[in-house]
């Protein structure tokens, strides 16, 4: 107890000194501000971006840390709940102040709210605060908590509660209400009005990140922590489906974040991520998908991980299924079927007894689909060494013949034909490029030629009228089957231009470049009703 008293006296002494300095500096505010600017500039130069990223990668790539975090998440101890309740009671006694001399000590460029909300010391996930001076996460704010002790040790006094966005001054422990903190609260948890949501796709305005670089909300880079390029392209792709995106945003469109709940984990974290991707006031101009990745690793029981590249079509399918089942227990409409579900009629002919030919009467079956898999014919085997190696090409319409109801698919057990019965608003095409040979995964490098606009599918369906689609999203694969990477082309509907996004890197790209990529997954939007 006496030790605590000493600490407090020390803090009071330090704070008085600082307040005196601040009081003195009021007359020379301009000079101080200039100094701060120089200091910030120096800091940026001293810590190059690349080094920063590497450190993060090492930290996050550590399996043991990841595991212990996940365990913590899944099994909150009763103690932590008790502690939370104590704090609630304590809070009622605490005062709220409009003025706090430490607001000017906040360092926005060091704030990053994309990481899992865990105390950097105890790894606890309740009552976690971010220090607004150094950006680190600490638990608690009551006496002897990690945040409280951090404030004593470092003279960092401003903290934001990561679960409700309230800002406190520690160790004094009063809440600070000030308009100037709103941008910080917004970066922690953006909240959108219906009007804003309705305008997201037509907004063609650039925003400026704290580092001075301009970005377009909705078209920002995502960190690749280790091997999660296959996740990033799927996140980027789903952000382009307005009705689905807005539904996901509405699902957690609030500042107050619930305690960890496995039942809605994927949807909530996906919601937070999508909100940050479209944030017009993003401090960093980029987002880390870290929290969603953690949720995917946990809920897929490590079927999908950060350390190993997986097939993005499998992830897409898994993700949509999970969101669908999570939302099925809520009031939210099932938009996944509404967006992507179509139907194929399959005719199956069985071989005749004499082994020559197939029965003439098929078994007929209607099957729903979320995406259509197209088979790319194998490239020619022989190469002429004297000539330039030609990359084989196939028009998309050739691959779509699989679904014309005439083309047959034979194997010793059956003959099948496929015909599309119903096409969705958003058509997902999956071009099967990867095949397992006896010993290794092989990639078919054939270029599939496709139109960016007015892909008409009326020939594949009985309706007879025009069914035109425009390309929204093109996920492609570059490199070998084993060591390649995924990137994505996305249409900016506001001005009909295209972006190429590879993890953090975003460039404008000409439409001609897109149609010669090694397309793997595409999403088309229907333009005819
Ligand atoms: Zn204060
Ligand atoms: Zn700090």
Quick rundown:
The protein is an alpha+beta fold and 529 residues long. It contains 16 helices and 26 strands.
Alpha-beta content class: alpha+beta
> How is the biggest beta sheet arranged?
8 strands, mixed
Annotated CATH architecture of the largest domain: 2-Layer Sandwich
Domain tally: 3
Relative helix content? 25-40%
Morphology call: elongated
Residue share in β-strands: 15-25%
CATH T-level topology of the largest domain:
Herpes Virus-1
Q: Which molecules other than protein and nucleic acid are bound?
A: zinc ion
- Total strands: the figure is 26
CATH class type of the largest domain = Alpha Beta
Short descriptors:
Cathepsin B, Chain A, 3 domains, eight-stranded mixed sheet, six-stranded mixed sheet, 26 strands, 22% strand, zinc ion binding, zinc, metal-binding, Peptidase_C19_UCH
Structural description of this entry:
One of its GO terms (cellular component) is spliceosomal complex. Residues 98-195 form the UBP-type domain. Residues 220-527 form the USP domain. This protein has 3 domains: 2-187, Zinc/RING finger domain, C3HC4 (zinc finger) (Herpes Virus-1, 2-Layer Sandwich), CATH 3.30.40; 192-330, Cathepsin B, Chain A (Alpha-Beta Complex), CATH 3.90.70; 342-526, Alpha-Beta Complex (Cathepsin B, Chain A), CATH 3.90.70.10. Helices cover 34% and strands 22% of the residues. The protein is built from 16 helices and 26 strands. Strands 13, 17, 21, 22, 23, 24, 25 and 26 form an 8-stranded mixed sheet that branches. Strand 24 and strand 25 (505-509) form a beta hairpin. It starts with a helix and ends with a strand. 33% of the residues are buried.
């Amino acid at each position: 107890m006496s030790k605590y008293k000493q600490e407090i006296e020390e803090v009071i002494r330090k704070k008085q000194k600082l307040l005196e300095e601040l009081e003195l500096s009021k007359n020379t505010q301009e000079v101080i501000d200039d100094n701060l600017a120089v200091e910030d500039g120096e800091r940026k130069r001293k810590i190059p971006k690349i080094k920063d990223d590497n450190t993060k990668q090492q930290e996050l790539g550590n399996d043991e840390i990841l595991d212990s975090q996940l365990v913590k998440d899944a099994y909150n101890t009763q103690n932590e709940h008790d502690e939370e309740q104590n704090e609630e009671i304590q809070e009622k006694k605490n005062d709220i102040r409009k003025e706090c001399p430490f607001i000017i000590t906040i360092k926005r460029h060091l704030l990053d709210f994309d990481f899992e909300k865990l105390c950097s010391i105890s790894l606890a996930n309740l009552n976690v605060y971010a220090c607004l001076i150094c950006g680190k996460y600490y638990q608690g704010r009551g006496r002897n908590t990690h945040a409280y002790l951090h404030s004593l040790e470092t003279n960092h006094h401003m903290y934001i509660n990561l679960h409700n966005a309230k800002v406190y001054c520690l160790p004094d422990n009063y809440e600070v209400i000030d308009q100037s903190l709103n941008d910080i609260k917004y970066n922690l948890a953006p909240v959108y009005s219906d009007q804003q949501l309705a305008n997201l796709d037509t907004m063609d305005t650039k925003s400026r990140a704290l580092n001075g670089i301009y970005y377009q909300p909705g078209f920002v880079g995502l960190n690749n922590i280790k091997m999660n390029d296959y996740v990033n392209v799927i996140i980027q792709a789903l952000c382009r489906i307005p009705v689905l995106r807005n539904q996901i945003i509405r699902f957690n469109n609030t500042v107050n974040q619930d305690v960890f709940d496995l039942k809605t984990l994927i949807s909530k974290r996906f919601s937070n991520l999508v909100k940050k991707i479209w944030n017009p006031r993003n401090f960093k101009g980029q987002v880390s998908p870290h929290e969603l990745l953690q949720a995917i690793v946990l809920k897929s029981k490590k079927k999908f991980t950060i350390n190993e590249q997986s097939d993005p079509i499998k992830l897409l399918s898994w993700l949509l299924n999970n969101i669908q089942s999570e939302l099925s227990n809520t009031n939210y409409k099932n938009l996944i079927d509404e967006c992507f579900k179509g139907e194929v009629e399959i005719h199956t002919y069985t071989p005749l007894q004499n082994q020559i030919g197939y029965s003439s009467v098929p078994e007929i079956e209607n099957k729903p689909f979320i995406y259509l898999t197209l088979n790319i014919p194998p490239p020619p085997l022989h190469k002429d060494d004297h000539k330039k190696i030609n990359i084989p090409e196939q028009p998309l319409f050739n691959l779509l013949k699989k679904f014309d109801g005439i083309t047959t698919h034979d194997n010793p057990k059956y003959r099948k034909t496929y015909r599309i019965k119903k096409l969705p608003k958003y058509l997902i095409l999956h071009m099967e490029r990867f095949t397992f040979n006896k010993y290794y995964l092989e990639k078919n490098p054939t270029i599939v030629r496709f139109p960016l606009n007015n892909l008409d599918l009326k020939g594949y369906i009985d309706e007879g009228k025009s069914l035109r689609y425009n390309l929204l999203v093109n996920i492609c694969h570059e490199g070998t089957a084993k060591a390649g990477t995924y990137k994505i082309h996305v249409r900016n509907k506001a001005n009909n231009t295209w972006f190429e996004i590879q993890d953090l890197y975003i460039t404008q790209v000409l439409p001609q470049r897109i149609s010669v990529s090694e397309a793997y997954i595409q999403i088309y939007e229907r333009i005819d009703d």
